[in-house]
Automatic annotation (TrEMBL):
Statement: the UniProt record of this protein carries the keyword Transmembrane: yes
Subcellular location: Cell membrane
Boundaries of every ABC transmembrane type-1 domain copy: 75-264
Stretches that traverse the bilayer: 14-36, 79-100, 112-131, 143-164, 185-207, 244-263
Naturally occurring in which organism (per UniProt): Myceligenerans pegani
Pfam family, one: BPD_transp_1
Predominant cellular place of this UniProt entry's protein: membrane
PANTHER family associated with the record: ABC TRANSPORTER PERMEASE PROTEIN MG189-RELATED, ABC TRANSPORTER PERMEASE PROTEIN MG189-RELATED-RELATED
Topological relation to the membrane, as annotated: Multi-pass membrane protein
This protein's UniProt keywords: Cell membrane, Membrane, Transmembrane, Transmembrane helix, Transport
UniProt similarity note: Belongs to the binding-protein-dependent transport system permease family.
Source organism superkingdom: Bacteria
Name under which the protein is recorded: Carbohydrate ABC transporter permease
Length: 279
């Protein structure tokens, strides 16, 4: 009788793995087609049936995209904004989260709930007054406007606070007894112990900023300030028949965030899995 439950568990596990493989294949298939199409000629991209192996491989597309499109400027601007915004959000989010998680002051919980509640407020509701404010400061049509827009994030504070609560308060209390300031506790104790959560916040923020389209569309007018999302949108309009080059540009736009995710995948999974677990 004991063998039957074991067989059922094995069968269920096999079916689960098969379902996960099918789901993963469904998610990855469009990306695989995009990469393959980037190595084809324009006439081969939409042939039916699909040619999964290009004949011939057109590696020239990865040279032409840099010539016909201003990819250097787009990638440089996007990388600059993404890196700066990520650093700002990691610093501000982790420090604010430390205040909410490890210090005591009147109205702390109410202030935290009020701040987290801003996640539910759609950007469209305050997009115009925000644009007017930044324009009055002379920041419109500069990369600084995008950096300032995303320098603070309620989600990052929430994520870091949940992780900080898994760290025993006794560590902070011992550090205070030894004379360490709150800044020192945050820098020397909390940050080194929260690498998985920091990695999760870094990946999420970098990917979100890299893929942002609406913000740069509103604030960046000069071509030399365009990010890769704006540049590819204009490239599609100028070369709408160059299907292979469009796919090549799409591959190049996805490649950096794929590398960032792969490098931090282990910490990302660990950070998400342990966030909210009480210490």
């Amino acid at each position: 009788m004991a063998a039957r439950p074991t067989a059922l568990r094995k069968t269920g596990r096999v079916l689960l793995y098969l379902a996960m493989i099918v789901a993963a294949a469904g998610i990855l298939l469009p990306f695989v087609w995009m990469v393959i199409s980037s190595l084809k000629t324009n006439n081969q991209v939409f042939t039916a049936p699909i040619e999964w192996i290009p004949d011939p491989f057109r590696w020239r597309n990865y040279v032409d995209i840099w010539i016909k499109g201003d990819m250097v400027t787009w990638v440089r601007n996007t990388m600059t904004v993404s890196v700066v915004v990520t650093l700002l959000q990691v610093v501000t989010g982790s420090f604010a989260a430390y205040g909410f998680a490890k210090t005591r002051f009147p109205g702390r919980d109410a202030l935290f709930l009020l701040y987290i509640g801003t996640i539910a407020v759609p950007w469209a509701s305050y997009m115009i007054p925000q644009f007017q404010m930044l324009s009055s400061w002379g920041l419109a049509n500069t990369l600084y406007s995008i950096m300032l827009l995303q320098a603070f994030g309620a989600f990052g504070v929430f994520l870091m606070k949940q992780y900080y609560e898994s760290i025993p308060d006794s560590l902070c209390e011992a550090a205070r007894i030894d004379g360490l300031s709150e800044y020192g506790i945050w820098w020397r104790i909390m940050l080194p112990l929260s690498v998985p959560a920091l990695a999760s916040l870094t990946i999420i923020t970098f990917v979100t900023t890299w893929n942002d389209y609406l913000g740069p569309l509103i604030y960046l007018r000069d071509r030399e300030l365009w990010t890769i999302q704006l540049g590819l949108q204009r490239f599609v309009g100028d070369y709408n028949a160059e299907h292979a080059l469009i796919m090549t540009g799409s591959v190049l736009s996805v490649l950096p965030i794929a590398i960032v995710f792969l490098l931090g995948q282990r910490y990302f999974v660990q950070g998400i899995a342990t966030t909210g677990v009480k210490g």
